[in-house]
Amino acid sequence: MGVDPLVLARVQFALTAATHFLFVALTLGLATLVALTQTRSVVSGSAVHARMTRFWGQLYVVNYAVGIVTGLVMEFQIGLNWSGMSRVTGSVFGAPLALETIVAFFVESTFLGLWIFGWDRLNRWVHLVLIWVVTLTAYLSAYFVLVANGWLQRPVGFEMVDGAARLTDVGALLSNPTAVLAFFHVLFGGLLTAGFFMAGVSGFHFLRRTVEVEFFRRSMRIGLVTVVVSVIPVVAFGGMQFEYVQPTKRGGGDGAAAAVADFSARFGPDVYMPPRGAQVGLGLMVSMWFLMVVLALVALVKLPFGRWLVRGRVFHVVMILAVPLPYVAMVSGWVFREVGRQPWMVYGVVKTRDALSPGVGSAAMTVSFVVFTVLFAVLFGVNVWLLARFARRGPEGAQLGASPPAEPVSPAMSPTF
Amino acid sequence: MDVLAVLLLAVFSGGYLALAGADIGVGMLLPWLGRDQRERRLVIASFAPFFLGNEVWLVASAGLVAGAFPGLEHELLEELYPLFVVLLVGWVVRDMGLWLRGRVDAVAWRGGCDVAVVAGSWALAVAWGSVLGSLLFGGELGVGSVVGVPLGVLFVWHGAGFARWRLPVGLAGRAARIPSRYGLSALVMALLPVVAGVEVSWSRVAAEGAGLTMTAVTTAAVLPLLVASQALVWWTFRGRVESPSYL
Fold first, then answer.
1. Predicted pLDDT of residue A150
2. Which of A327, A314, A320 is nearest to A220 (CA)?
3. What is the DSSP letter of B209?
């Protein structure tokens, strides 16, 4: 029974990365909105903003946990399954990943621990600084990861010596347009995800005739304002990247034909055009964006009038249904970016086929594939369920920042629904 | 530059085993330190504020290996593939047990999470023992991988020292049955990767070109800041734990 290790390794990475990114997208945007809400609460002493910080912060933390563990596995998977790439380009590709872990993630995680567990122990201004450090290092983390990914798309600032790449120009690596533009694209994509998430959860509570009218009116407003602010920049930074997109990724044209001729001359005959899936990804992402623009226009009409946010059952149902839109756009955008790069791992340098770990057999790869896929499927299910559970419970159900009750909890403490 | 990068890797990997080694050890001892779910939540609270800040030392070590020693990354991970799969699965299962335990008020849920924490901690410790043993015996699956397994017990010893110092007096007494001194065991844990790394020919696996310089210099420059942020965590949560935490 021979399963192709290349297929297994690719599908495994795609599943890990997609799961990781679904959670990361919300983490990035929601951290920003929680930090802004907490700032408002600390500066003005507003009680409703303090409660909003705890409720949305709770959802942020539940979401964050899956982001961490999938990220850990991804970091190791590159070395486990793709050592062929590391052999040729490790001296370049490893550097931004190293900086991501040391400069960004290390600080992010340490300060997040302080923010979660130090809720009542720390001065409120210190506590506020913590969430901002967490937010900014989360963005720094995204930047470094996109520097690494941007280099796979458009390798710059290196020379080949004895068949191995070595970095010659740090500035070119760090300012690679495929990294910088992608970073801002992801930044606004994350905000869009969090905006629709906040608006959708708020819509759900209005639909259920919540008594927390002010709480969810303010949340709905923050969500919709975020959507309106992000929906144009996200497409602008997406569109600007087309100037740097590989000729073969666009699916045809003179540039693609020239690139295929060049690759065939240098690397021998091969299929140098990516599979059709890449174009499907692009189409899906753009369609999702159009739907989001329509909703942003509706939001623009509703926003000036606070009461209009509270009313309109159709509006609330639509906002709930809109929560998946940015997620679909995100994942299909990644499909376009990554599938569109095929057959290359590092464009024009290392083919995906050659990037695979040569020594790892089909059996080991199969076991690892099955184990991690099952594990992540369970994690995904459990965490989506938990997110929905805490979102449904509303502000009274937030455990974050509340002194935990002595176990066993009396029945009065857990509301039923 | 190689030398600086090796020193930094020693700091980060030693930091990981000394700091996270303690919370892994407490996780291994969970059924003995906490006899019911309320006690177990308290035991988890002893390391809850630290565990996020502890595991980042390993993430940073892995990053440092990728950036400065890509040769080691693929040799080690590829040779010891099964060990690292066990290590990662143990790590993920344990982390999810910790993150999820406090989220649902149900006996079966908390019981399931306790099992995940204990099993994950044991898997992690045993996998680490085996990885360190393999490194010492030439960096491949073989005698060293088996010989290293008992090293996992060091985590228990280290965890007991931590629990003795952090748990409320009554529960700390149970940890005290294992003769341990936190300072001593932390030193031993920190030196483990140094000993295991003696056999590696570092200049052969090091990165070439500006990538190595960028990684090593930046890491050295931010290290004081990283240590300060960790010190802030330790200072904030000093003393014995009295009540359950968010986890």
1. 93
2. A320
3. B
**Residue that the structure tokens 């539940």 belong to:** A62
| Total count of residues recorded for chain A | 417
Domain range for residue B17? 2-86+155-211+221-236
The Cα of B26 is separated from the nearest Cα of chain A by a number of Å equal to 18
Rounded Cα gap, residues B243 and A72, in angstroms: 30
pLDDT tens digits, A46-99: 889 999 999 999 999 999 988 888 888 888 888 888 888 888 888 888 889 999
The Cα of B139 is separated from the nearest Cα of chain A by a number of Å equal to: 15
Q: Contact A114/B48, CB-based, under 8 Å?
A: no
Size of interface A-B (CB pairs under 8 A): 226
| Interface touch A83/B226, C-beta < 8 Å | no
Q: Where are the alpha helices (DSSP H) in A82-176?
A: 83-99, 106-117, 124-153, 170-174
Neighboring chain A residues of B60 at a CB cutoff of 8 Å:
101-102, 105-106
ipTM: 0.90
The neighbouring-strand residues paired with A165 are A160
**pLDDT tens per residue, range A334-366:** 999 998 888 888 888 888 888 888 877 788 888
Give the other-Cβ count within 10 Å of A170's Cβ: 15
Token output for A84: 């062929």
Phi, psi of B112 (to 5 degrees): -60, -40
In a domain, B17, yes or no: yes
Other Cβ atoms less than 10 A from the Cβ of A139: the count is 17
In a domain, B43, yes or no: yes
Residues A300-304: what's their mean pLDDT?
83
Question: A157 Cβ partners below 8 Å, 6+ apart?
Answer: A92, A167, A168, A169, A170, A171, A172, A173, A176
Measure in Å the smallest separation between the Cα of B179 and chain A Cα atoms. 30
B45 within some domain: yes
Token pair in block for residue A378: 């369970």
Domain range annotation of chain A = 5-401
Residue A261 CB contacts under 8 Å (≥ 6 apart), including other chains: none
Q: Quote the crossing angle between the two packed helices B2-28 and B210-236, to the nearest 10°.
A: 40
Q: Indicate whether B229 belongs to any domain.
A: yes
Place of tokens 């800041």: B225
> Hey, of B59, B219, B235, B238, which one would you mutate to test binding to chain A, going by the most A CBs within 10 A of its CB?
B59
